[in-house]
Automatic annotation (TrEMBL):
Residues 3-121 form the Response regulatory domain. This is Response regulator. The keyword Ligase does not apply. Keywords: DNA-binding, Phosphoprotein, Transcription, Transcription regulation. It holds the Pfam family Response_reg. Residues 148-213 form the HTH luxR-type domain. It comes from the Bacteria. It comes from Sphaerisporangium corydalis. Signal peptide: none annotated. The modification 4-aspartylphosphate is found at D54. The keyword NADP does not apply.
Length: 221
C-alpha cells in the first residue's frame, strides 16, 4: 500500500486528489496539510511513502518544505512530487534540485497522476519524460552555463552510457533494450552511479546530467 500525504492550500484541490487516489486498491491518502510546516509535522507523525506537494502556499511554501524534508535524515526516505503549472518552470527546477522526485501538472489526467505516484515511489523512472526533459532542459538553459562535474570521473564508460539514457527519461527496461543489457543489470548500474555521485534519486541524476553538460539542453524533442 502506497501511503500519500496531500499538501495544498486549496481544500477543493485536495478533495479532488484524494478522491482519485483513494479509489485505487494500492494507494491510500493518510493525511492532508494546507502549508509546508504542517506538512513536515504530519510527515513525521504519519511516515508516508510520498508527499504530493503544492509549490506556492502561505507560510512555509512547497520549495522550503521539500528542502527541509530532504535534509532531515528521519524524513529523507519520503518521496516528493511537486504540483505545478507550466508557468512555474523556475520553481520546478528549484524543487528538483531541492530533492523532489518529480512533478505533476495540476491539470494532469487521473491516470497520469496515478502512474506518477507509483513510478516515483518505485524509483524506477522519471514522471512524464517528455514533459520532464523539456522543463529541466529549458530552465537549465536559462540558469547558468553548464560545467563538467569532477564526480563524473568516477564513472565507468558503461555507467556513463546508462546515466545518459536515464537522463533521456528512459526506464530501466528501456535502457536495457537500448544497451542490450538485462533490466537487473541496468538497475545495478543505476544504483552504483547514484552512490558514486552522491545523489538521492533518479531525478537528481538527471539534473546533474544537465548541469554538467552530459546532456545539452535542446538536443532532442
Amino acid at each position: 500500500m502506497i501511503r500519500v500525504l496531500l499538501v495544498d492550500d486549496q481544500k477543493l484541490v485536495r478533495a479532488g486528489f484524494r478522491s482519485i487516489l483513494d479509489d485505487e486498491d494500492d494507494i491510500h491518502v493518510v493525511g492532508e496539510a494546507a502549508e509546508g510546516q504542517e506538512a513536515l509535522r504530519l510527515a513525521r507523525e504519519l511516515n508516508p511513502d510520498l508527499v504530493l506537494m503544492d509549490i506556492q502556499m502561505p507560510g512555509v511554501d512547497g520549495l522550503e518544505a521539500t528542502r527541509r524534508l530532504s535534509a532531515d535524515p528521519a524524513l529523507a526516505h519520503i518521496k516528493v512530487i511537486m504540483l505545478t503549472t507550466f508557468d512555474l518552470d523556475d520553481y520546478v527546477y528549484a524543487a528538483l534540485r531541492a530533492g523532489a522526485g518529480g512533478f505533476l501538472l495540476k491539470d494532469a489526467e487521473p491516470e497520469e497522476m496515478l502512474n506518477g505516484v507509483r513510478v516515483v515511489v518505485r524509483g524506477d523512472a522519471l514522471l512524464a519524460p517528455s514533459v520532464t526533459r523539456r522543463l529541466i532542459a529549458d530552465v537549465a538553459r536559462r540558469s547558468r552555463a553548464p560545467a563538467p562535474d569532477p564526480r563524473l570521473n568516477a564513472l565507468t564508460a558503461r555507467e556513463r552510457e546508462v546515466m545518459l539514457k536515464a537522463a533521456e527519461g528512459l526506464s530501466n527496461e528501456e535502457i536495457a533494450g537500448r544497451l542490450f543489457l538485462s533490466p537487473g543489470t541496468v538497475k545495478t548500474h543505476v544504483s552504483r552511479i547514484m552512490t558514486k555521485l552522491g545523489v538521492r534519486d533518479r531525478v537528481q541524476l538527471v539534473v546533474l546530467a544537465y548541469e554538467s553538460a552530459m546532456v545539452i539542453p535542446g538536443w532532442q524533442d
